[in-house]
Amino acid sequence: MGAIHDFSVWESLLRIVRGSQGERLAAPGSWVTGQIGLGGWSVPGWRGEFSAVEGVQKALRADGLDNVSFVCETGTGGKTLLHVVEGGPAVECGITSPYVGALVLVEGAVPGPWRRLPDTVPGARPAPSADAALLERTLRERLPDAVGATEAEIAGAEARLGVTLPDELKALYRVTRARWQDWSGDHAAQERLRDAVGCELFPLDGLYVADARSRPCPWQYAAKDVAVTGPDDAVQDLVGSPGWIAFGDNGGGDRVVVDLTPGPRGHLGQIIMISHEEEIGAHLRAESLTDMVVNRRNDWYASRTRDRPPMVAHVGRGALDSVAAAAHPDLEVLGIGVGSPEPVSLAPVAGLPRLRTLDACPGALADPLEIAGLKALEYLRLGPEEWRVLLDAGAVPRSLSAASIDVRGEQHPVPLLDLANEILALWDRPLITRTVLAGDL
Prior knowledge:
Structural class: alpha+beta
Oligomer: single chain
Distance between the termini: 22 Å
Mean pLDDT: 93
Low-confidence stretches: none
Helix content: 25-40%
Radius of gyration: 27 Å
Order of helices and strands: HEEHEEEHHHHHEEHEEEEHEHEEEHEHE
Number of strands: 17
């Protein structure tokens, strides 16, 4: 038993919870939930008593944990029952503790868009404005005292990244290697560099390949998105690419990237921006690094949308009025929400070759067993009753890589955690652990 399972570690926090939720916790069997993490917490009735939270965080560190959920329940005789819930490596953190997030049924599995590699674009060429010599001359004029990288340092960066840097990027770092120690704490020099280049430049050892692994996203969001590159797109619609070399930041968390895998209407070596507010896609900033620096290009905007018919379809209030209307050979993501006059059948989408995600709210399906007709399904989100039907019938699709339980309203967490463990057990994945501690406050 770890430190987190010591009732005394929780006692101060539980007193705060019971003191603020006294009416709600008055009757035996009543409960409230919360969550404590190293980076934040959600505690009912918390009013700034940091020491109570810090005691639990100290126990988390001692046990090597990042977060833990809890249920505070009133037992018989007025005792306090504390359910300590640890999701484990197969469970993503839920938004409403201790309801779990997605259950990752296949270790290391990621949604379809995160597996997509860039398409080859025959004839992709640098833009006419790309001019490494002009770029280098311009930067030397703007930064006459900068310390440049050596050829050996540039070669070392290429070896570390496993990619040959484009000539323009090499020219940039020959002028300045952007190391903090070269400025000797001179903030004005740092500002001059940012103004000269047009971004907060990474040092050579800070360059990285912005592939899909550099942009993780929880299954419950990622599974509902698609990546679609159109014939007129300058930038391929991807999570990441082995040809995206991140070399700077705009100061707000958006990455500045050289694109070596452009879209059909793009240029080799164009400059793109990866928004920190989006999980997929990037946006064109300049047709070349020379263009960005010499002409001080800074215009770009995030405009991507998740709803991309016919690849993504929603049925219900404010959306399509039937599953048949959503049926299309290119359909990848189907959401069925509230607002349908009656539960719907999945028959119109049975056998669709690319339908990988189904998100159906509780009560939306006429027959959950029709899910068996969705042969390409990799992510499934259903209400507890629908999951119960599939489990009792032995009909949970074996094609799944991840799953979620859609919880509406307040439901006691314990049956939901048990349900999640039944799903995890089908794939022999590590289970959610729940330890019950009892104490008299």
